[in-house]
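Q: What would this chain look like folded?
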Amino acid sequence: MENRFKVITATVAFGMGVDKADVRFVIHAGMPGSLEGYYQEAGRAGRDNEEAYCILLHSKKDTNMHNFFLRGDRKLIMAQGKSWEEAGEILEVKYQKLNKMTTYVESAECRRQMILKYFDDPEYTKEKHNCLGCDVCLKWKKKTEEFSVGDTLHQKVKRQLIGSTVKETVRLFEQGHAPLAIAKMRSLGESTILGHLIDWYVAGGEVDIERLVSSAEQDQIIEVATNLRTQRLKPIKELLPESISYEKIRLVLAQLRRES
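A: My prediction, written as structure tokens:
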């Protein structure tokens, strides 16, 4: 309450009991089971009438998880003395609420209008308008970089779009650590570390390929790819020694595309 902590990780109870006016962000790491729940939790933001943001990170597995728990609720409801039919009626209401929430996150309609309609608020109108507050009306979309096929390996793929996980791998590699050593440091697989370096290189970053693929291996990969006239990994891999991994092939092909 005294702003000594900048971030709070909270359970859904956050939506019921926190009366702090200057919350600037409410970020949901998964979809709530109902619009009532979401409205309570998101409503913690911006109670001082200053600008605030409510961000809901949603994937289809959220709906699957809620359905899984609802299927197990019947036994709990019946254990409280309800009949099979009564339990079914209660679950039907819960499923309807979940369906409304799923529609909310997947819809391209104004978010505010959907909430007003759900709660039968007199401010709801059937006429289309711009609320100037939701991602739909503001036309916000995930940032992606547009580029033509011929430019896929050029600087138009901005390196700042690469995540911190990849950048940490690149930082350790630039310090001189080998991929296997980085994998042990970070408790990741060596192929994952190589994948990070490839992603960085494809996005226009610099990687010392000689440290990952010897000159002899590069020559072998280039020869096979040229003879096959393909950049598909599997056919190339089948004609190369077992010691040459898919990651090495990807790096050399990426280098070829960048040079061309």
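Strands lie at 25-28, 53-56.
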